[in-house]
Amino acid sequence: MKSNLHKNPVVLLVSVALAITILFSGFIVLVVALKDDDSGSRDGANYEVFGSCAEIANYVNLQQELSGNYPIFDGFLNEAREDTAEFAEPPSPATAQGESGTTGGTGADGDFSKTNIQVEGVDEADVVKTDGNYLYLVSNYTLIIYDTSDPTKPVQVSETSLKQDGFEMFVDGDKLVIFGRQYRQYGYGIFDTSSKLAADTTTIYVYNIADKANPELKEELNFQGNYVTSRKIDNNVYLVASNYFYPYEELTGSNIEDYIPQVGTEDNFAKAAECDQISRYGDSVSSFITVAAFDLDSSEYNTKVILGDSSNIYMSQNNIYLATAVYEYQESGEPENPFLLNNTIAPDYREPSSTNTEIFKLNVDKNNIEYKAVGEVPGTLLNQFSLDEYYGTLRVATTQNDFGGWSTDSSNGLYVLNEDLEIQGKVEDLGISEQIYSARFAGERAYMVTFRQTDPLYVINLSNPDNPTVEGELKIPGFSNYLHPYDSNHIIGVGQDADPVNGRAEGLKVAMFDVSDVNNPVVKSEVIFEEGSYSDVFYDHKSFLFDKEKELLVIPMVEYHNSFVLEEAVPLTTTPTEDYYDGFVVFDINLTDGIKERGRINMFDLDYLTRSYRAFYLPARSLYIENSLYLIKNELVKVVNLDTLEESFEEEL
Fold first, then answer.
1. What are the tens digits of pLDDT across the range 442-452?
2. pLDDT tens digits along 45-58
3. Taking the alpha carbons of 112, 151, 139, 301 in that order, is the dihedral positive or negative?
4. 416 and 462 Cβ atoms separated by less than 8 Å
5. Taking the complete model, does pTM exceed 0.70, yes or no?
6. Which of 32, 378, 599, 612 has the fewest CB atoms within 10 Å, i.e. the most exposed one?
7. What crossing angle do the helices spanning 53-67 and 76-83 adopt, rounded to 10°?
8. What pLDDT was estimated at residue 288?
9. 529/96 Cα distance (integer angstroms)
10. What dihedral angle (degrees, nearest 10) is formed by the CA atoms of 498, 535, 627, 644?
11. Rg (Cα) of the chain, in Å, rounded?
């Protein structure tokens, strides 16, 4: 679906029906700006496209019945079974059938840092951005802009109230893009029957910031669904949003259209796709994912819809990859807690026995997005860093287990897929009885950390995609949750130390690994903090700041001990104690001296606990402009000198 925001101004009206997890039905919507390409290129593809609304309805009904996810409304089951005769199998595959960017980082462009990203040239939205002259920050329904002409003492030039809860943004010259969200509130067991969609609203707001003192809202595009992630390549912004709907009636070729998510502006909105433009993958019928590519210059956008789900999303400069877990089932008779329908047990109850990951590939360029291929690999992904595109191949790191976390049957593998997402190379059975805690691809190498009691760091040679091989392995106590390349022969790991006997996680650990000799990787340097310390970097790579030229590494850290009770400390003090620390740690990092702690900047102000509940949820961020280090955490902004760490500015948000 193609549209132009200037021609079709729209505010999306979204209603939410209460969603019961085991009863969801849904779709994936891909909105890409620029060119209408409703059917995609089907030559040689292995993806599937529905032929009609009836096919979608009957497929959803069938999948719900096969999985034992039965609607609770009388009369639905038998009627649904009768209708599935029209379409009892998935649609037939379509009859006819990149080189990746390098690892991204926060290096300087001019003399300021950027958001820590995964793929060079593919920007990721964040709560704070800078162009070197101004600092842009989104917090508490507000856009705040600071003039950083004097980086040591930023001056607030504007504070703009937002229509929705703005939480991430991009800056592109004189344009600023904010993603907003609006939640629907429901009591237990209450359904909003004004709409069959159980979705919140995600909105793209485009501001003209030529006049920083008076940002002007120019565009507004709304999607039914919850924000998942976003990317930006040049002047094209891509949004991924998830939309669930609850079928409290039998689905038919007529009413299924009521469940297809809508997109638009205040005066005009419409379905994101027609039924015969909708593809599918995976075995889930639980969500719409809205991926929006929006052209900042022309305001055009285009939509694609996929029935399925997506737990991990990766984007290269040429392709979007959606990944979801798919289950193989075994018959198990009656469930322990059967879901009753008319006081009977759902027949043919099955429970999953193993999990694979199915991947949907879509090709993106400036003017269109096309369905390309679907592939499958054994096991499940950890996060977006489990995927990497390199010269037309997709490398995937997975853990295979028996649904038991640290199951003795667990193992790990790395798979290389060709352009059609067919497996062309693999290495398996790594870290038996362990699971992946982090993975990172860097050119023709992959680094993988698995863990149970010790931390095996695997160095994998990918120069021959048909035959990836493990070249080196290092076992040390603890594990790394995040890996970041330092250079071609060294990698930084942020994670936790652990007891080598029982595997119990202890203090925060920051390490540099030397893989110059790939057969014998070693720890070149490490800093281990006291037990009870951790970092947001474990789960949020955007909180990691690294600049090789400046020999700078900054991470947030919280450190507490068993004797410290926050509730008891609140009325007693507003200063850090020996038992609790919440702030940032600044390191010097180079190949000569390794990693050395330079100092800490406290962001622990007990008063913030009474200012706003959001203080706990505003992500920790650090960046630099010239020789000033900016720190955002706990609704505080601080500026310190990069050399001395002397504070020059502090302000509450």
1. 999 999 999 87
2. 478 899 999 998 99
3. negative
4. yes
5. yes
6. 599
7. 120
8. 74
9. 57
10. -60
11. 25
Q: Which residues pair with 244 in a beta bridge?
A: 26, 198
DSSP code for 96: -
Alpha-carbon distance of 298 to 316, in angstroms, equals 23
Q: What is the mean pLDDT of residues 534-557?
A: 97
CB atoms closer than 10 angstroms to residue 476: 21
CA dihedral of 32, 34, 38, 44, whole degrees rounded to 10:
-80
* Beta-sheet pairing, 300-308 with 28-31: antiparallel
Cα separation of the two ends of the chain? 40
Q: Hey, what are 588's tokens?
A: 């010097």
Residue count of the chain, please give it: 653
State the DSSP H helix or E strand holding residue 513, giving kind and residue range, or none if neither.
strand 505-514
Dihedral sign (CA 323, 328, 334, 335)? negative
CB atoms within 10 A of CB 616: 10
Q: To the nearest 10°, the Cα dihedral for 104, 109, 112, 117?
A: -10
> Which of these ranges, 302-306, 332-336, 544-548, 570-574, has the smallest mean pLDDT?
570-574
How do 552-560 and 621-625 pair as beta strands?
unpaired
> Higher model confidence: residue 340 or residue 490?
490
Q: Average pLDDT, stretch 485-512?
A: 91
Q: Does pLDDT of 269 surpass 50?
A: yes
Write the Ramachandran bin of 30: left for phi over 0, alpha for psi from -120 to 50, otherwise beta: beta
List b or e across 325-358, with b for residues whose CB sees 16 or more CB atoms inside 10 angstroms: bbbebeeeeeeeeebebeeeebeebbebebbbbb
Section 201-211 average pLDDT: 94
Residues in contact with 197: Cβ distance below 8 Å, sequence separation at least 6, in sequence order: 14, 15, 16, 17, 224, 243, 245, 259, 261
Decide: 16 and 192 in contact? Cβ < 8 Å. Answer: yes
pLDDT digits (tens, 9 = 90+) for 612-652: 555 446 799 999 999 999 999 988 999 999 999 999 999 98
Q: What angle do CA 556, 561, 567 make, to 5 degrees?
A: 90
